[in-house]
Amino acid sequence: MEKEKKMFLGVTGGIAAYKMPDFVRLLTKEGVDVHVVMTKNAEQFVTPAVLRTVSGNRVLTADWSHQDDPFDHLNISKEMDAALIAPATANFIAKMAHGIADDLLSTAVLALACPLYVAPAMNPRMLQNPAVMENLRILESRGIRIIPPESGAMACGEEGEGRLPALEQLRDILLATRARKQDFIGKRVIVTAGPTEEPIDPVRCLTNRSSGKMGTAIARAAATRGAQVTLIHGPVAIPLPAGMETVAVRTAREMLDALESRFEACDMLVMAAAVSDYRVASPIAKKMKKTDAPPTLALVQNPDLLEMFGKKKGRRVLVGFAAETEDMAHNAREKMRRKNLDLICANDVSRSDIGFGGAYNELVIIPRGQEPLHTGRLTKEALADIVLDEALKAGAAAFAASGGMK
Ligand code: CTP
Question: Which of 60, 196, 387, 403 is disulfide-compatible with 37, CB 3.0–4.6 A?
Fold first, then answer.
């Protein structure tokens, strides 16, 4: 979201609502014009007067009788650049998931036409309730971006996942929002995601802890921005995005086959998959039996897919990832050179607060021949848009020369 933009902030009745005046101040300092709507229960934790003072705008509350304009709920939903519901209670999430409009905020939310974020904050056991998880999945499948809660000590005294992320974190996620430009229309983008799995025998395999969340977020963002997307993914346990071709593979060589038949026609390849560098030389057809002498697994090298496609890159934009535990920028640049990439996104996989499996990541994005961009810790959704912006910029010279990316 660029500065001097209008933001809709919906506040619902969770304890974290008391933090919203500070949050509004953080945003207004960045030049964002914040318009607050709150539920009746939110008023138990923060007053409309405080939010009006810090935002400098009228605050709409649940009490329609005090509103001078009967169309307030519609007027406030117009011309917003982004909207956030924070904190979002289990009840409000349920209402959103089912289109219930029984107060001013829930009615206004139905009329919003801008990118919408939801920051759930509640007791960890409530968050894990299957009904709440299902409602969050419903919202996500409709393109609403869920800002994952953080783990830590809760107001109720329990420990676990459910805290509203730090206010600076929320601000950065919103400010990283790009207007949903349709800047990928007419472009074919292939994204790979998740781990690969190399069989040892019918029940055992070599794999890694990649969840597929980063690649899936990039695929979803590219599709939202108008691209024709193919998502080639290894075995993942996360919901797959709709509105694109999805190809499930298991091994690195299956991923290679899926890429080979599609690479020619693509404009951009983003290799977010954690491809296994090795496979078992001779997988066994029957389950290995336990023996007294521990078996030795002979491994052979898998093809480096990105390096192979780097050799026939043409004017396609190639984006790689670099999972590093040390010397990030140096190792990433070396990979970019070796694999003939336009852009490489390095992440520190030794940190437990970001990366593999989690909802957050922090990237050092290096365009070829340029200075690195340090993103800071953001959700994988926010990072996906930044990666795509940088990939477009990195490929811009090629577009100019050819009038297209190929
Ligand atoms: N990659 C690939 N094929 C492989 C291994 C990796 O296409 N067999 C891609 C990954 O998808 C990623 C990039 O190459 O975009 C870098 O992967 P990474 O595992 O960080 O590096 P490697 O090249 O495997 O080098 P190393 O393991 O030595 O760090």
Answer: 60
Among 114, 156, 205, 266, which one carries the catalytic annotation? 156
* Beta carbon of 255 within 6 Å of any ligand 1 atom: no
pLDDT one-digit tens code per residue, 339-376: 999 999 999 888 877 777 778 899 999 999 889 999 98
Q: How far is the CA of 304 from the centre of ligand 1 (A)?
A: 7
Amino acid residing at 171: R
Q: Give the domain extent around 37.
A: 5-179
**pLDDT-based confidence at residue 276 (cuts at 50, 70, 90):** very high
Do residues 153 and 237 both lie within one domain? no
Write the CATH number for 308. 3.40.50.10300
The CATH number covering residue 138 comes to 3.40.50.1950
pTM of structure: 0.76
CA angle 55, 56, 61 (to 5 degrees): 70
Instruction: Provide the mean pLDDT of the chain.
Output: 91
Residues 295 and 395 in one domain: yes
Q: Which atom of ligand 1 is nearest to the CA of 344?
A: 15
Do 23 and 139 share a domain, yes or no? yes
* Mean per-residue pLDDT, 288-293: 88
Question: Probe ligand 1: pick from 191, 214, 335, 365, max atoms within 8 Å of CB?
Answer: 335
Q: What is the mean pLDDT of residues 8-15?
A: 97
Residue 156 annotated to the active site: yes
Instruction: Tally Cβ neighbours within 10 Å of residue 286.
Output: 7
Q: Find the largest Cα–Cα distance for the chain.
A: 83
Q: Which residue has the tokens 């790009």?
A: 178
